[in-house]
Amino acid sequence: MRDLPTHTVTDVALEAVGIGRSFDGKAVLEGVDLTLAAGDVVALLGPSGCGKTTFLRIVAGLLPPSAGRIAIGGRIVAEGAEAAAPPEARGLGMVFQDYALWPHLSVIDNVAFPLRMRGMPRAARRARAQAALEQVALGHLAARWPGTLSGGQQQRVALARAVVAEPPLVLFDEPLSNLDRELRESLAVEIGALLRRLGLSAIYVTHDQAEAFTIADRVAVMLDGRLAQIDAPEALFARPATVEVARFLNIGAVLAGRVEGARFRLPGGDIALPAGALPAAAASGPAHLLVPRTAVRPADPGGAELRARVIRCQFQGDRYLLHLALGAGDDSAHLVCPADRPARPGEAIGLALNRDRLCLWPAAA
């Protein structure tokens, strides 16, 4: 293995450039670029099999890249398949979904283990470990054994161990997937607050949108081994970059139709498009229109621009969701509309649209 070159950037927690990885000749990652500033928290969000865990393993040093370069805290740790620093030389914190706690060590000794590996004296490392446990509200359980703790408590211990040495980067590999939803939601809030309180940088891998949006400053949507879009959670929902991103995030209905002039033609009617929705070069032709759930509401059928037929009414506790068809044929478009009142299947309703929230893409040739 040849020596790794040095890197002089010091205010960047992670710089990954052109990361690729293939297995048996099949590309799993292609040209992934990701940069984290110090203190930046990025969620890597995508469906199973999209390559997000492979990317995390490459950053951690558990897997070499087939191509590309990685620098952590200003030091290059991997460059192609020829040179890569081992995991223990990267100084990272890691949190896994299976906790990875040593059952023969007490809670405080589990947390102190990274400091022990660095040669810190016993008294100093136990004091640091106790402080980390206090950060996750488990200081009173320092002497317990991991096997006597609940799943949520074990995950808090794993989190304390990951941050105890204040590493340049903390990696999370779907850490809450084994917990029930209520506990996942509360721990997601705690993790986000702790990372910001300590000023740590982190990559958080998940397939759960709620976790990603709760924890991260930016969300990187990964689809088919590529980063499709990186943005703040609010920006992702307001302006998804592609049809594929909009569909994955399930923001609303993606309707297939045709642009003619300033209107989008559908079986159930035409939609006036907001100014500048399409570039001049693509002013007409087949297209896809995103109608977010937040952009549509029931209206009087007589004066509404669009008419729809109710397929199903779904009660959700604080509101109803109306599943609608635009048009009467088998090729009718479908969308979902929130409503304050129920509607009967087969009932015709009108729809009012907030056009500023619509997104339009020319259909691929």
Concise overview:
The protein is 23% helix and 36% strand. The chain is an alpha+beta fold and 365 residues long.
SSE inventory with pairings:
Layout: E1 12-23, E2 26-37, E3 41-45, H1 52-60, E4 67-72, E5 75-79, E6 83-84, E7 93-96, H2 107-117, H3 122-135, H4 151-163, E8 170-173, H5 181-198, E9 202-206, H6 209-215, E10 218-223, E11 226-231, H7 233-238, H8 243-249, E12 252-260, E13 263-266, E14 269-272, E15 285-292, E16 296-299, E17 306-315, E18 320-326, E19 333-339, E20 348-353, E21 359-362
Parallel strand pairs: 3-9, 3-10, 7-8, 8-9
Antiparallel strand pairs: 1-2, 1-4, 4-5, 5-6, 10-11, 12-13, 12-15, 13-14, 15-21, 16-20, 17-18, 17-20, 18-19
Description:
The chain has 365 residues and is of the alpha+beta class. It folds into 2 domains: 12-92 and 167-238, P-loop containing nucleotide triphosphate hydrolases (Rossmann fold, 3-Layer(aba) Sandwich); 251-362, no CATH class. Helices cover 23% and strands 36% of the residues. The chain contains 8 helices and 21 strands. The protein has helices spanning 52-60, 107-117, 122-135, 151-163, 181-198, 209-215, 233-238, 243-249; strands at 12-23, 26-37, 41-45, 67-72, 75-79, 83-84, 93-96, 170-173, 202-206, 218-223, 226-231, 252-260, 263-266, 269-272, 285-292, 296-299, 306-315, 320-326, 333-339, 348-353, 359-362. It has a 6-stranded mixed sheet with strand order 7-8-9-3-10-11, sandwiched between helices. The longest helix has 18 residues, at 181-198. The chain is elongated, with a radius of gyration of 25 Å. The two termini are 46 Å apart.
